[in-house]
Amino acid sequence: AETIRHRPVTPMQIRAYRTGEEAELRQLFHASVHETASRHYSPQQCAAWAPASYDIAAWAERIQSVNPFVVVVDDHLAGFADLQGSGYIDLFFVHPRWTGKGIGRSLMQHLMSEAARRGITELTADVSVAAEKFFASNGFVVVDRQVVELRGQSLPNARMRCMTQAAEPSRDPS
């Protein structure tokens, strides 16, 4: 008999981002890149992707424009992700402290449900090498491999896509 192991699920709340959380989201993003993605990218690539110093106003503007969902665990932001009207996921990050505890999977399920609710038929994302396996485990497939040039560094990633429940054809009994 095959044993199936389930990752522990942490009690959490998923809600819309609130103005004033930009700095905590930046810290989460920085930690995710430098602690989790660093297994797949060099220190120089991570520094280009998530530099220690950054334009606070530009980051706040970006967060406000993508209006992400956040995952709250024990009064801390454990992860965040956005879903654009086109179905594009621009940002998807989980704090290293919370990886492997069901945060990312719950957040992805939330995005999928939200996409279906909005009638979005296809999700797309430019996915880091570090997150590719996670996205694939959630039904995404690689459409293209690409390299992003950022602050003098080349960062490989994959354009991935996933059809949503909104795309499933209705069953016609005829």
Provide structural commentary.
- With 174 residues, the protein is an alpha+beta fold.
- The protein is 32% helix and 28% strand.
- It is built from five helices and eight strands.
- The chain has a four-stranded antiparallel sheet, sandwiched between helices. Strands 4-6-8-7 form a four-stranded mixed sheet.
What tags apply to this protein structure?
4-stranded antiparallel sheet, single chain, 4-stranded mixed sheet, alpha+beta
Distinct helical segment count: 5
- The percent of residues in helical segments reads 25-40%
Kindly report the oligomeric state of this protein.
Answer: single chain
End-to-end separation in angstroms reads 41 Å
Number of strands: 8
> What average pLDDT do the residues reach?
91
With strands numbered from the N-terminus, the spatial order across the biggest sheet is 1-2-3-5
What letter string, H or E per element, gives the SSE order? EHHHEEEEHEHEE
Q: Provide the structure class.
A: alpha+beta
The major beta sheet can be summarized as: 4 strands, antiparallel
Strand content: 25-35%
Poorly predicted segments: 2-6
Radius of gyration: 17 Å
Overall geometry comes to globular
